[in-house]
Design goal:
Layout: H1 16-31, E1 44-48, E2 51-59, E3 64-68, H2 69-84, E4 88-95, E5 107-112, H3 113-117, E6 131-135, E7 140-143, H4 144-158, H5 178-189, H6 201-213, H7 218-229, H8 233-242
Parallel strand pairs: 2-4
Antiparallel strand pairs: 1-2, 3-6, 4-5, 5-7
């Protein structure tokens, strides 16, 4: 997987005046003389070859976010429907009021709808019972650049593109010259810079620290470790086992 080196969007607003006017027109269309207003919407939804990515953004207030119970029920139903016929990734993410979205190192916090459905996120309600109150410390913290990479990963998954660029060798390994082997490794290292490079003690310590301290799902953590260490998925899984973290579950190659 090629690393994202900048924070530039794929699409830009070429005429901000036209863009703002279109949004204003849509607002008037919804608000003027219509009864079906004030309902639940989502901030961002895309579809790609039958797969869906949904993002809902919230703002922290005193180290927590609040979500109306009715809104969350609607989100759950939407997630169930879209997941029933294909892949659906639903992320609820939150940020602090003063975040700089132009800085790829700025942090955001998130959790997945799948975690919510499994009750891995505490479902505490406010005193009125009308809102869920979700604390910052139960959400996974991640820099913007890594959050973007997660979205890119799902997009590639929908396209059914293999990230693991394993070279296809037609001949027996014993008949391949050293020069050809070196070339194959160099090709792989264009995508995974540290592929076939010996692990160090500091690498192992960083691996274990990241795995234990981060709250992302296992698949997300593996993906981020691939990016962090510049190594293939199989190498990360193998090292996690060798360092005593013992992953028994098998993850699909991606």
């Amino acid at each position: 997987m090629a690393l994202i080196d900048d924070n530039l969007p794929k699409h830009t607003i070429t005429n901000s005046e036209v863009f703002q006017k279109a949004r204003e027109q849509l607002g008037h269309l919804i608000l003027k003389n219509m009864e079906i207003t004030g309902g639940t919407d989502v901030d961002w939804l895309i579809e790609r070859k039958g797969g869906f990515i949904i993002l809902e953004s919230k703002l922290f207030r005193e180290e927590h976010i609040t979500i109306p119970v009715g809104q969350m029920i609607a989100f759950e139903r939407l997630y169930e429907r879209l997941s029933s016929s294909g892949k659906c990734y639903f992320y609820l993410f939150a940020n602090e009021d003063n975040i700089d979205f132009t800085n790829p190192e700025s942090p955001v916090w998130y959790f997945e709808m799948s975690e919510w459905k499994k009750k891995k996120i505490p479902q505490n309600k406010t005193k009125t019972g009308k809102y869920y109150r979700i604390k910052k410390d139960v959400m996974a913290k991640i820099p913007i650049k890594h959050f973007r990479i997660l979205m890119e990963h799902h997009w590639k998954e929908f396209d059914k593109k293999k990230i693991d660029l394993k070279p296809k060798l037609q001949r027996s390994p014993s008949k391949i010259s050293k020069k050809e082997k070196a070339y194959s490794i160099k090709e792989i290292q264009k995508t995974y810079p540290k592929a076939y490079v010996r692990w160090t003690e500091s690498d192992d310590e960083l691996l274990k620290k990241f795995w234990k301290e981060n709250k992302q799902s296992k698949n997300d953590k593996i993906l981020l470790l691939m990016l962090k260490f510049g190594r293939k998925r199989g190498a990360i899984l193998s090292r996690l086992n060798k360092t005593g973290l013992g992953l028994e579950e098998k993850y699909p190659a991606s």
